[in-house]
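User: Let's play a game. I give you a shape written as tokens, and you guess the letters that built it. Ready? Here's round one.
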């Protein structure tokens, strides 16, 4: 007999059974997955042909002594040993690391400052004009930028003319031809090119910050500096990570600006790995050594970029 409050328990599981996928469901899912792969296939083929295949070939060539035409001779890791023991190659890698300061840290730091000013003082059409002007160096071809800055920094260029006009003629010099100033001068060109990109990315990130956070900070008595450190900077962690990633890769893989402005001179003062790889492979016919240097450069890029990516996502490096 059943209870007045309901039926007696039967011991069965009253939960609805999960429907078992039928053969028709599985066939429909397989067709959908196959259609998706067909859309992705052209991109995968292009990636395999133009990225994965050259990467595998570079790794292979780095283990040989080869001039690009004749018979290759197996040398194992000798090319890598040369990269890490040759003083000239080590100096070239060091030049690229120095350029990180100019190409990455300076644009990001100035970009934060400029973006904060743009967010505060520009609105409407005027703000659009300011953003366009700031982004303009990123649009200009690097070859054109290198040529223009070569004229500006030459012995009789506009920079030296301005220095002489204000009585600082003793400071004037051929900035891109002096052993002491050539590398910083190239770094200034790179910082000018990348400042606009960093500024626009950071301005976009600042536009996503909840205004209520700034109001709460002001109510707590925070000034502009404290407001920037407590609200703006933590909220831009991902945008700063993107800026650092892009600019560090630009510094380590730099080629255009250096080739146009200095061709790596004077001496090896501005020679960077990208330029040296080109010279070794096509001028000196040392394809194996050039490939080994390219692999080392790739590993250096990964060693710099991967920790930044993890930190920007809030993970431990």
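Assistant: Ready! My guess for every position:
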């Amino acid at each position: 007999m059943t209870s007045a409050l309901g039926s007696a328990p039967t011991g069965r599981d009253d939960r609805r059974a999960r429907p078992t996928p039928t053969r028709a469901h599985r066939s429909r899912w397989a067709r959908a997955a196959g259609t998706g792969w067909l859309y992705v296939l052209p991109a995968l083929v292009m990636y395999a042909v133009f990225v994965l295949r050259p990467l595998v070939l570079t790794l292979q060539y780095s283990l040989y002594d080869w001039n690009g035409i004749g018979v290759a001779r197996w040398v194992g890791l000798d090319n890598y040993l040369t990269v890490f023991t040759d003083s000239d190659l080590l100096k070239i890698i060091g030049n690229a690391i120095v350029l990180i300061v100019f190409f990455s840290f300076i644009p990001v730091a100035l970009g934060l400052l400029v973006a904060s000013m743009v967010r505060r003082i520009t609105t409407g059409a005027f703000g659009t004009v300011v953003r366009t002007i700031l982004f303009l160096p990123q649009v200009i071809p690097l070859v054109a930028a290198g040529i223009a800055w070569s004229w500006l920094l030459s012995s009789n260029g506009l920079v030296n003319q301005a220095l002489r006009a204000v009585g600082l003629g003793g400071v004037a010099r051929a900035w891109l031809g002096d052993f002491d100033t050539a590398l910083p001068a190239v770094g200034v060109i790179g910082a000018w090119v990348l400042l606009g990109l960093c500024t626009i990315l950071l301005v976009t990130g600042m536009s996503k910050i909840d205004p209520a956070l700034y109001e709460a900070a002001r109510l707590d008595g925070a000034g502009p500096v404290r407001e920037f450190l407590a609200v703006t900077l933590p909220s831009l962690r991902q945008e700063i990570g993107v800026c650092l990633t892009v600019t560090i890769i630009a510094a380590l893989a730099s080629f255009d600006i250096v080739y146009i402005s200095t061709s790596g001179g004077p001496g090896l003062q501005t020679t960077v790995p990208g330029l040296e790889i080109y010279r070794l492979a096509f001028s000196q016919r040392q394809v194996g050594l050039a490939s080994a240097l390219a692999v080392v450069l790739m590993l250096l890029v990964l060693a710099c970029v991967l920790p930044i990516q993890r930190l920007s996502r809030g993970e431990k490096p």
